[in-house]
Design brief:
The chain is α/β, with parallel strands linked by helices. Helices cover 44% and strands 17% of the residues. The structure holds guanosine-5'-triphosphate and magnesium ion (MG). Magnesium ion binds next to helix 2.
């Protein structure tokens, strides 16, 4: 594979996702469960400055476009709608790999205000991979109609990331969304996602294994998240890392993971 780590000495995996920052200042991912309004947000932000194609090497459709906010050009990538990032399907794998390896400057997670609990599952999974998350609680008009009240300040506090309520179809909240994306991409806001805590046994295994994982992959991949995947014996992810990053040493961590759980 002609990119990467070995050849350049640094992670340039954005190139294999055709998502480098040529002609733009920042790359932003749009994630969310199916039917939450991602494409409506995407269309509202990018207007006619968009095109579609396939993800490299996949039959999964990809849409990307650009928008300008505060004189900066943003490239927005509409990820496939998924319920999780466990890579059980091509869609999930594309979404996970993009967030993990292309390392967007910010990821917007679009959630449905009328079924927040189910939708936050994906938000928490994204927040395990990257800190740079903005939660966009969409369909707020539907929530109002159903008399569902939402305290975005409290939600933001509990999650540790910025939250904005939107009704993408009418454009409500989208200007605030772009402000927050700008703040996160520029580093004016540094989200601090509250980590999901697991059982004592799992946390102990993480404590043992994570320093060794970090020593292998550095700060380029979230080591706690990768440790969890290794404890899950996600050998496919290890192969993906080998492909993307040429970091074959990571494979050595799988027996370590099994050791950690023994
Ligand atoms: N009432 C209301 N409807 C919305 C809003 N945003 C999107 N919709 C509608 O919700 C439906 C789904 O929107 P999409 O933008 O296609 O959702 P998506 O997340 O891209 O869906 P997938 O790509 O299939 O995962 C469409 O009928 C939209 O018009 C909103 O804020 N309020
Ligand atoms: Mg869509």
């Amino acid at each position: 594979m002609g990119l990467t780590y070995q050849s350049t000495g640094q992670l340039t995996t954005r190139e294999i996702f055709n998502a480098n920052t040529d002609n733009c200042d920042y790359v932003i991912a749009l994630a969310g469960n199916p039917n939450t309004g991602k494409s409506t947000v995407f269309n509202a932000l990018t207007g006619l400055r968009q095109h579609t194609g396939n993800w490299p090497g996949k039959t999964v459709q990809r849409a990307e476009g650009t928008y300008i906010h505060k004189s900066r050009r943003y490239r927005l990538i509409d990820l496939p709608g998924t319920y999780s990032l466990l890579a059980n399907s091509a869609d999930e794998e594309v979404a996970r790999d993009f967030i993990c390896f292309a390392r967007p400057d910010a990821t917007i997670v679009v959630v449905d205000a009328t079924c927040l609990e189910r939708n936050l599952n994906l938000a928490l999974q994204v927040m395990e991979i990257t800190d740079k998350v903005i939660v966009c609680v969409n369909l707020i008009d539907e929530a109002r109609r159903k008399k569902i009240q939402l305290n975005t300040a409290k939600l933001s506090d509990r999650l540790g990331v910025p939250v904005v309520a939107t009704a993408a179809r009418s454009g409500e909240g989208l200007s605030r969304l772009m402000d927050l994306v700008d703040d996160v991409a520029m580093g004016r806001i540094l989200p601090k996602p509250q980590p999901v805590r697991y059982s004592k046994e799992v946390e102990e295994a993480i404590a043992q294994l994570e320093p060794r994982v970090r020593a292998l992959v550095g700060e380029d991949i979230n080591s706690r998240w990768l440790t969890l995947r290794l404890l899950d014996c996600d050998t496919r992810l290890v192969r993906t890392i080998e492909n993307y990053l040429n970091a074959r040493e990571t494979a050595a961590a799988v027996p370590l993971a099994q050791e950690g759980l023994a």
